[in-house]
Design goal:
heterotrimer; A alpha+beta (483); B alpha+beta (409); C alpha/beta (435); A: 483 residues; alpha+beta; Uridine Diphospho-n-acetylenolpyruvylglucosamine Reductase, domain 3; Vanillyl-alcohol Oxidase, Chain A, domain 3; 7-stranded antiparallel sheet; 5-stranded antiparallel sheet; 34% helix; globular; disordered C terminus; C: 435 residues; alpha/beta; Fumarate Reductase Iron-sulfur Protein, Chain B, domain 2; Rossmann fold; 3-stranded parallel sheet; 25 helices; 51% helix
Chain lengths: 483, 409, 435
């Protein structure tokens, strides 16, 4: 089997020691069971761990990591395994530590708008716990009904509403981190100012390479009084992009601005019958939120701006049910596309918002060049694109073309002054492209930062930073539900 | 020493790049270097590393002279690297040299109806580098956040004189480790920040301030919290009677709530405020903007010691519950600046802040008090250990503003 | 767009499932928190995504059917909550049924397992056998000794017996004369276990349909719907049952067929798919499936019989197959809300399985009990007078759990609850009476 042992120090003694620490029901060592842990939402590369541990407390995590430290064994943390860049794929880590059982909301402090959670708490469950009182936790990745806060912290997750409210890093105030040697440290805290270096800020987005977060203090926000959600249809993405710029330049900060192109509109309509007219080249979902008093004026202003840019139609969701339908169409667009082909690969690139028409034209050209179908559904407000490359994984040539096309798209993003990833993370997927974005000095300093937490390189080794001189070859693109 | 250093550095730089410290700069640096390029800063850093010369960016020297009990050998002024490098109004991003003042940046952005909604006092004296290095913020942190929420890319010269970049120029980006977070609030101890990229926000359509007067701080805070919970305030400032503004009333605490949005948003909020706080005074238009600047720059009365505390917002009132204490508070954000008379009171405040899950930092102090009260709180031992490792990794020669940060870093 | 000539697709090594269906799963994980067993163990092997992964590995012969794999696949309740959560339209229900059938043919279970499965399979689908088996209990109950008996039993057995509702009087014939010129005609499929243990729901449904103006026709020669066998991998007998039911329903001339057990409704609604390769009955099965409706649908709108005012607070529990299999959530709630005086409040996760799941509470008592406890917690938090649901299995399961904790909340089948409101009936006549 391919899930061979890469690290050293694994023997039956380690299993027994781990079982003594956390109990036999929290250690998985049978190969047939470990198999399901061989990949996350990025399924191209697979590698099962040799052992899986499912701790229930900070003390257990600390004891596990002390043990692994003594034995010099590397580990990889895992939340719900919904990541899209292979962040929890064990590369050279024999032991996987899954935090899914640490799913307790430790405390809720509504008056200070703080909540303390264990890392296995599901993103949406945080909001669920405070919604009745009129609060919410802002970052809302599309996987929010399954992904965990620990995973969100590792990947610095975003979501449609990050346009207005920011990403995970903007909402994590403090963490309790177990270092790779087992020491438990408190970084940051519930106050707004930092004391000393902002190490909690450095932990967010570190993709599991600095130890394991066992508790996090999150900021809650007051739920908006009201929403206005609009669907606008355009002839092409150029005019739709101009409308996006107009709205933002006008002084409004919408909660979300999402765009779908022709291929996606067709797929969504075929699957869900939302009522998109045939032939629309681009659809925008614009959501404004805030105080009820001025929202209608904002909405009519936004509608007016979109019409002035050439929107064919602008429709306001009449009620909450219609709003939910629009979001369902948007969030399930990927599922709909999945029905067009047996596989699809989603890229996650970023360009300056004004370059959206350029990158979309470039994507069209790339699709033609590689004889592929590529659809686009993305966060238009912040220039975060998600091209969906359709392919058939059992067709080796088409698979190869899909990988190549994905890489070309990323390079095109970089050429336009963009980035490799807006919210999915580097993981293993984009390791090879990191040197295109960062200089050797940038990468060296990042490695120094990493070593502050993990000097022995035992926490999720091989991730984020390419090893100098090495080039990770990705064998096939992924199929997934992104963002 | 100073002249020897000048000679040494003179070999590296044109005469025009070196100067004597002016005014209170002398408390912070023995010589001031004004490099004009990354290469020059790199040269300087390598020289300093070779010869163990301490170096620190000085900005306007307001923070550094409080931090340091003795001046660094070489102060770096980035006045030559103060340009707006790229403003993309449609993308709402700006790249700016660290030497630029916030006022200069604001002027460029305002022409396009945009701003960087981070508003520490005295923008004409505060450089971008200083704002990042000292994590300065202002009143709109309540609604917009702090500089950490707007910095999307950073460049600094680190050890070996190498220029390093983190982040990028796009508003959403998770590629690589977050060097921005590491550099913000590092007080010049990890390198010299040379350039910053920010995301921007549109200026609000309307802006108004609602002012209320209260006899006691507890009552003022309570009202403020009620307003904050009910509305979407841009800011909520509470000034004690000793902080003089044109609208100060004798012996009264002044509570200033900022509202924005469109006409209906503003009217609704002002109406609510009037209902919740009878006797509210409303400022709009130019009056509001003028008073905003007053609030932003409001200074604590002269005092031997000034501190900033951060705490859980609802616990902030208990930290400030001392008769006659003069303070200005970003009330709902849980941050306040205080004027204090002696080290003993400061120690009490520090304990109160810690009890409220926060901490305190000295902003300025009379020379006589130096050494009697630490500038920073001590971070928990685990965190401090990591901070020391970070310092050692980023500054192996120990030349970047050493010895005055948390834990003596 | 130019099309490519796909190369030869790689096929599976083993015929475990309809292999192409596996490719609908994109491994996104959105199903995890919708899965009751994942919620219990928080382990990937016990999640829908993990099970699909195991199925694929089985099909590709990268994994062998060993005790671990079988344990994780058995552990699935078959609630299909994951199908609701899935954005890609994965047909998990079909996949797990096929895999279970393959396991039964390719894996030798330990003896105790085989005996238990044989017993369940030999007993439950046959009402006469089940009645006979329950006779001693019925006698004890009539003698008033059932509480005593339950107390005397060891815990495991006691929890099973607690699931059995009151046996006395439950089969009382109270049928209504069908309206002679009524709409319809409608037939009520009485099920197997349901007609022994929950016949009042069948009778109530028939009365309500009559009152709504439907002509109710009998279904004399129907048998168990086959869901039990499908879920446990006995596909052959399931097909036999399906054929018998298709023939019987066709002969009855019923335009609509309903069942008061949601699992049976779903199974019958999927006969068309199940028998699609049957040379003789494929078309009839499709017709029959199209006729399967839910009671609340037939009682909606103008057809709804007039009800009296009935002041109470109610919560509605979504039976899995109704919500996830047939997508019926709103109609039963609308029916409840339409009764004057009824206040409907929602519990947390109303569509999370209660652990009943066919015979799951017999094969996996511990997991079933934990899910029942969660469900009872969610119900208790609402402060209602009644829990209404549309599946007898859920009714037994939830009622047993609420009884154990001495809660005064009544559990009623939707048909019984509405009948009570329409006919001003006595609650005791319809509800579970053991307390």
């Amino acid at each position: 089997m391919e899930d061979g042992l890469r690290g050293s120090g694994i023997d039956s003694g380690l299993r027994a020691d781990l079982e003594a620490l956390v109990g036999a029901d929290a250690v998985v060592s049978r190969r047939s069971e470990l198999k399901v842990y061989e990949c996350d939402g990025w399924t191209i590369e697979k590698n099962a761990p040799d052992l899986l541990v499912m701790p229930r407390s900070t003390e257990q995590v600390s004891a596990i990591l002390r043990l692994l430290h003594r034995r010099g064994v590397a580990f990889v943390p895992r939340g719900a395994g919904t990541g899209l860049s292979g962040g929890c794929l064990p590369l050279a880590a024999p032991v996987m530590i899954c935090t899914s059982r640490m799913n307790r909301i430790v405390s809720i402090d509504l008056s200070n708008r703080r909540v303390e959670v264990q890392p296995g708490v599901v993103n949406l469950h945080v909001t669920d716990a405070v919604r009745p009182q009129g609060y919410f936790y802002a970052p809302d990745p599309s996987s929010q009904s399954a992904c965990t806060i620990g995973g969100n912290i590792a990947e610095n997750s975003g979501g449609p509403h990050t346009l207005k409210y920011g990403v995970t890093a903007n909402h994590v105030l403090g963490v309790e981190l177990v270092l790779p040697d087992g020491e438990v440290v408190e970084l940051g805290g519930p106050a707004e100012e930092k004391l000393g270096y902002d190490l909690a800020g450095a932990v967010v987005g570190s993709e599991g390479t600095v130890g394991i977060v066992t508790r996090a203090t999150l900021r809650l926000m007051r739920a908006p009084q009201s929403y206005r959600t609009m669907l606008a249809l355009f002839d092409d993405v150029d005019t739709a992009t101009r409308a996006v710029s107009k709205i933002i330049a006008d002084g409004m900060v919408p909660g979300a601005i999402e765009m779908m192109d022709r291929l996606i509109i067709g797929a969504v309509e075929a699957a869900f019958h939302v009522g998109f007219p045939p032939g629309a080249g681009a659809a925008l979902i614009v959501e404004l939120d805030g105080l009820a008093a001025g929202l209608d004026d904002h909405a009519s202003r936004a509608a007016e701006l979109m019409r002035s840019c050439g929107a064919r139609s602008v429709e306001l969701a009449r009620d909450e049910a219609q709003r939910q339908l629009l979001w369902k169409a948007r969030k399930r667009a990927f599922g709909a596309v999945g029905r067009l082909a047996s596989n699809y690969a989603t890229q996650d690139g970023v360009v300056p918002r004004t370059r959206l028409p350029d990158i979309l034209r470039e994507i069209t050209a790339i699709a033609a060049r590689y004889r592929l179908r590529i659809g686009n559904v993305f966060h238009a407000g912040d220039g975060n694109i998600h091209p969906i490359v359709l392919y058939e994984e059992r067709d080796a040539d088409e698979t190869r073309r899909a990988i190549e096309a994905g890489r070309e798209i990323l390079k095109a993003c970089l050429a336009m002054g963009g980035s490799l990833t807006g919210e999915h993370g580097i993981g293993v997927e984009k390791l090879a492209e990191m040197p295109l974005l960062f200089s050797p000095d940038d990468l060296r300093v990042m490695a120094e930062l990493r070593a502050v937490f993990d000097p022995d390189n035992r926490s999720n080794p091989g991730k984020v930073l390419p090893r100098p001189g090495s080039c990770v070859e990705v064998s096939a693109p992924r199929r997934q539900v992104p963002l | 020493m100073s002249s020897v250093l000048q000679t040494e550095l003179g070999r590296l730089f044109d005469a025009g790049r070196l100067r004597e410290p002016r005014g209170f700069e002398s408390a912070a640096a023995e010589v001031v270097v004004e490099p004009a390029s990354l290469d020059e800063i790199g040269e300087l850093v390598r020289k300093c590393e070779r010869d163990r010369i301490c170096v620190a960016p000085i900005g306007a020297c307001r923070t550094l002279r409080c931090l340091r009990s003795a001046p660094v050998s070489a102060g770096v002024s980035l006045i030559q690297m103060a340009g707006v490098i790229a403003h993309e109004p449609d993308d709402m991003t700006v790249v700016v040299g660290a030497g630029a003042t916030l006022a200069a940046l604001e002027a460029v952005l305002a022409r396009h109806g945009q701003h960087l909604p981070v508003d520490p006092p005295f923008p004409d004296q505060t450089t971008v580098g200083a704002m990042l290095g000292a994590a300065h913020s202002g009143l709109t942190r309540l609604s917009a956040g702090t500089v950490r929420d707007f910095l999307i890319g950073v460049q600094f010269v680190g050890h070996g004189g190498k220029a390093v970049r983190g982040g990028g120029r796009v508003v959403k980006n998770v590629a690589g480790y977050d060097l921005m977070k590491v550099m913000i609030g590092s007080f010049g101890t990890l390198g010299i920040i040379t350039e910053a990229t920010f995301k921007l926000r549109p200026l609000p359509e309307l802006y108004a301030i609602a002012i209320g007067y209260h006899c006691a701080p507890a009552e003022a805070f309570e009202t403020g919290f009620r307003l904050h919970d009910a509305l979407a305030l841009l800011h909520l400032e509470l000034l004690s009677p000793g902080i003089r503004t044109p609208l100060t009333r004798e012996g009264q605490y002044l509570l200033a709530a900022g509202v924005g949005g469109n006409r209906k948003d503003a009217d609704y909020q002002l109406e609510e405020i009037r209902r919740l706080q009878p006797g509210t005074l409303i400022l709009e238009g130019a009056d509001a903007r003028r008073f905003y600047r007053v609030l932003r720059d409001a200074e604590l009365p002269q005092a031997p010691l000034r501190m900033q505390i951060a705490a859980l917002p609802r616990q902030l009132p208990s930290c400030l519950d001392r008769p006659g204490l003069q303070f200005r508070a970003h009330a709902a954000a849980g941050v306040a600046q205080l004027a204090l008379d002696d080290a003993e009171t400061a120690a009490g405040i520090r304990r109160a802040a810690a009890d409220a899950r926060g901490h305190a930092r000295v902003l300025s102090l009379q020379p006589a008090l130096r050494g009697l009260i630490p500038i920073f709180d001590q971070p928990p031992s685990g965190a401090l250990k990591l901070m020391r490792r970070l310092k050692a990794a980023f500054d192996p020669a120990g030349i970047f503003n050493p010895g005055c940060f948390v834990g003596g870093i | 767009m130019q099309s490519n000539q796909p190369q030869q697709k790689r096929g599976p090594a083993r015929d475990v499932v309809d292999y192409e269906l596996l490719f609908d799963c994109v491994h996104c994980g959105l199903c995890l928190e919708a899965c009751p067993t994942y919620i219990l163990t928080r382990a990937e092997m016990d999640s829908p995504r993990g099970r699909i992964y195991q199925m694929k590995a089985l099909a590709e012969a990268r994994l062998d059917a060993d005790a671990d794999v079988v344990r994780h696949l058995d552990f699935c309740l078959g609630c299909r909550g994951c199908e609701t959560a899935c954005p890609s339209g994965v047909r998990y229900g079909a996949l797990i049924e096929q895999t279970r059938a393959w396991i039964e043919n390719n894996y030798r279970r330990p003896l105790s397992d085989r005996v238990r499965r044989w017993l369940i399979g030999a007993l439950f689908p046959y009402p006469s056998r089940l009645r006979a088996a329950l006779t001693p209990l019925a006698i004890i109950e009539r003698a008033g000794l059932r509480p005593l008996l339950q107390r005397a039993m060891p815990r495991g057995l006691r929890e099973w017996i607690e699931l059995v509702p009151a046996l006395t009087g439950n089969g009382a014939r109270s049928s209504t004369a069908p309206a002679p010129d009524g709409r319809g005609p409608v037939a009520v499929h009485h099920g197997c276990v349901a007609q022994v243990l929950a016949d009042s729901a069948n009778r109530s449904a028939e009365r309500l349909l009559g009152a709504a103006g439907y002509k109710v026709v009998p279904l004399p020669r129907t048998v168990c719907c086959g869901a039990l066998d499908l879920h446990s991998g006995n596909r052959r007998r399931a097909l036999e049952f399906a054929r018998a039911n298709v023939r019987a329903i066709e002969q009855s001339g019923a335009e609509y067929v309903i069942s008061t057990a949601s699992g049976c409704s779903t199974a019958m609604a999927e006969y068309g798919e199940l028998l699609k390769d049957d040379p003789e009955l494929a078309q009839s099965a499709r017709d029959v499936s199209a006729r399967v409706k839910e009671l609340s649908l037939l009682l909606a709108g103008e057809r709804q019989p007039a009800t009296r005012r009935f002041e109470c607070v109610v919560t509605y529990h979504d039976a899995c197959h109704l919500a996830h299999g047939m997508g019926i959530r709103e109609q039963p709630r609308a029916l409840l809300r339409s009764i004057p005086g009824v206040k409907l409040v929602e519990m947390e996760m109303p569509d999370l399985c209660c652990g009943s799941a066919g015979t799951y509470n017999l094969t996996h008592p511990q997991a079933a009990r934990e899910l029942a406890q969660r469900k009872a917690d969610a119900i208790a938090a609402t402060g209602v007078d009644y829990v209404v649901l549309a599946n007898p299995g859920c009714q037994f399961q939830i009622a047993a759990e609420l009884r154990r904790r001495g809660a005064r909340i009544k559990v009623m089948h939707l048909a019984d609850f509405v009948a009570m409101a329409v006919f001003n009936g006595n609650e005791a006549k319809y509800s579970d009476r053991i307390s």
